[in-house]
Amino acid sequence: MNISVTVFGKVNIDTFLYIDKLRIGENHLCLKTFTDIGGKGANTAIALAKLNVPCELVATVGNDSISQTALKRLEKFGVGISSIKSCEEQIGKTFIVVESGGRNTMFHILGANAYLTPEKVDWTFLESCAAVFVQLGIPAETAQEVIMMSKRNGKYVFVDPAGFSESTDLQILAYADTVAPNEVELLKITRETEIEKAVKKLLNIGVEEVLVKLGRRGANLYTEKASYHVDAFDVEVVDTTGAGDAFNAAYIFAKLNKFELRDALKLAVAASALVVTKVGSSSASPTREKLVEFLKLKGEERLAKAVLEGST
Ligand code: RIB
């Protein structure tokens, strides 16, 4: 397979509990439950594959049968799995409580994800792909080395800082082309209290683009020279899990296809809009056809045509 994007991130089994409203310390009646393959690595890779972007996932899973099922499912979606290593740990797990209206609360078991050390990485990916996606929830030294080596080897480097820990050095983001946090993550990673100052800090250390996910308010994109805002599309919100991951994938698709920045931002917002209308995480991301259909429905004919004709 000719790989366009190498994805470094977590693989989880997500267990969803849909309830009306979360009240700590009380009993709840579940309206519905659902199980899905999750983790930002798996979600982003699956979302890329659904957009027909050839991608390879670098991750660690367990030695158990659930891990095998997860691998088969990733493969079924078209994700390259030959760089996924297994270890003597349980696969990562996330328990997700989703309230009516879509808000979620997560409980994580890191499991095998904690074992994605630099020694587990097959560095030949540097010879093949055009772009690299890294989430910071994997061990910090791996994220750091992958980001630096990818940049030095001329890759487009996209970082989702979710999972950034207090001990992570902000300087590792200096090698990223695009950093895509939500507002809470942005303030946390920069240790700032104002969005503008936080964005400036990232641009000043060398990040080319700061993409800020604003949920129901859409998203902003900042570069040294300009800033852009795109409103969220008006959709019925069922479950917001995985919206940021489909956003990342659609933005990477747009960058690989050399879209204008505003169009790339709009496409990312459109992909996340489709995710929130569905239950689950990786299952909820749209195929390229669904994205084109949605853009047409929303009157975005020109962008829909560009997505349809995209080569990646
Ligand atoms: O971004 C959503 C993901 O975050 C979920 O799939 C869950 O596994 C958590 O890692």
Tell me about this structure.
This protein has 312 residues and is of the alpha/beta class. It has a single domain, classed as UDP-N-acetylmuramoyl-L-alanine:D-glutamate ligase. The chain has helices at 40-50, 65-77, 125-128, 140-152, 183-190, 195-205, 243-256, 261-276, 288-297, 301-309, and strands at residues 5-8, 12-19, 32-38, 55-58, 60-61, 85-86, 92-99, 104-109, 131-135, 156-160, 178-179, 209-213, 219-222, 227-230. The strands form 3 sheets. Strands 4-1-9-10-11-12-13-14 form an 8-stranded mixed β-sheet, sandwiched between helices. Strands 3-2-7-8 form a 4-stranded mixed β-sheet. Helix 5 (183-190) packs across helix 6 (195-205) and helix 7 (243-256) packs antiparallel against helix 8 (261-276). The two termini are 13 Å apart. The model has no long low-confidence stretch (mean pLDDT 96). The structure holds alpha-D-ribofuranose. Alpha-D-ribofuranose (RIB) binds next to strand 2, helix 1 and helix 7.
